[in-house]
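Input chain follows. Return structure tokens only.
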Amino acid sequence: MNNSETIRRIVDEVMGKLRETKEPAPVPTPASASPARGRVARLVAPETLEIKEYPLRPIRSDEILVRVEACGICGTDTHCYRSDPFGLVPLVLGHEGTGEVLEVGSEILMDGVGKPVRRGDRIVTSILETSDTCMIAKYNPLKANLCDDLKVYGLLPDEPDNPFNGYFGEYLIIRPGSSFFVVNDMSVDLRVLIEPAAVVCHALERAKNCGVNLNFRTRVIVQGCGPIGLLMVAVLKTCGINNIIAIDGSSGRLETARRMGADETLNYKDYDGMDALAAAVGDLTKGLGAHYGFQATGVPAAFAALFKCIRRGGGICEIGHFVDGGECRINPHHDICKKEITVTGSWVYNSFEYPNAYHFLQRAERIGLPVTDLITHRFPLGRIQEAFDMALSQEGIKVVVESERRPGAAERT
């Protein structure tokens, strides 16, 4: 037998043994039954939340069923809780949420960036698509966030057969036409922060388009160190801004601002009036004032005061007034015209900005910014009233409501 025949024989013997010992193909695990009922925390009147169990209807071919894991309480949630400013009661609040996919309709194949979506995936949702009659979206899709009929989960009225429209519940039904994203590679805490992160990423993009050059040497003020202001500090630091001044009235929040990347902090309570605070800003900016300011307090008087801290040729982005907080008084000559100040507004976000938001959060963690430390309090769904009380007290920063696994809950087959 020559060498080639010997080699062929050895190869045949080895391959035969491999075929004999090959493990059988794994048997797919049957999908577990989906829930038949679920609880929601329904806002039935101002400052009145009612936890109630409802039937969970079968999803349709263009819907997704999600088991809610957690949801942050937003400032908009607290405004709705206190006074129902949008006239939506009764409804289930909660839009800073995330959860696990339990069922996927047959028409749903991929998320907003082309990732396949399957049972067990972790997802977040963005805005629902606007109606076909929206003229703003029709003529400028990049401005769809300005549509009057913009819809967001947690700010939707109940449907006759579906109260599962917000994240303050055990389940959520994702409607047709919604934007959603698979984010399996992120912790639940990071996922809860994606929605507010989208708000600050949108604000940064608005600021970039106002004619002020934001770069490594730009001196930037962030006024207001609530969750949005602190995330604004973090996104600026992540993008390379090295001169960030945070202003707030809480020493604890100012310390958190430093951890998020602020280089200087000013407590306005330490100064006798706005002129004195503006002078302190001048001391930090070579007497000129900041190049740019992000206003994140939601307080009209604070917005008016910020003009005194901005240098000539600078700019301001208003990001804090998501509800009507009233009016303020500015001097058009001194505050805007004489200084050639550029003022821009920032309103929520567009769905295509969500990928930017979760990449920002991942990058922030990689460079050592403790963004998940913004979550200071956690409450189970059954204690959501306490969670809102904590959020309104402003003792913490980001309050999160977590869904509980209930043993023995009824399931449908």
